[in-house]
Amino acid sequence: DGGITQSPKYLFRKEGQNVTLSCEQNLNHDAMYWYRQDPGQGLRLIYYSQIVNDFQKGDIAEGYSVSREKKESFPLTVTSAQKNPTAFYLCASSVIGTGAETQYFGPGTRLLVL
Amino acid sequence: AQSVTQLDSHVSVSEGTPVLLRCNYSSSYSPSLFWYVQHPNKGLQLLLKYTSAATLVKGINGFEAEFKKSETSFHLTKPSAHMSDAAEYFCVVSDSGGFKTIFGAGTRLFVKA
To answer: B53 to chain A: nearest residue by CA?
Structure first.
């Protein structure tokens, strides 16, 4: 089955700890995205990547880091600098084109602070 | 600059009655517009998208939306609600290149038996 997988489904972070969220896709998409979702708000873009070894900051990149060493993988690290990390994190991918491309979403990871 | 406004945070309908979820947008260019649905603790799934072809767009599960440039609206409708339609719905606007994508705040649809 083609699609996007995210792991883990739930993740707990202690104060001062960095945690990494996994995102893998087998859709052969060039573009991948990370979004943060808070209750009552739409999705906000954290980072996106159009090609391996390249990525761009989105609207709320502070306190987060990413890497894109392989086309199918785009892990997100939530660093200790992110003071309010509790949220639902969604990864997506798409082809690159004219802007009408559908984004395909993973099932999400819920991050909670202990 | 782009923006998208979903006019209702919550909509409640009875099963078998029509659904209307309202979305207004602003964009400096010819936008692409999307509706996505999210069931609890799940990712988003595309319902339909407008890409400057026909202004009435049909999507999955009986949903459709009409692009009205004069009103800068892209409202989502369904003639008859089903219990399984209960979810959160997001209106999305995207400019060329796809990386200027703005999500609305979402409308939660409740369906009563």
So the answer is: A100
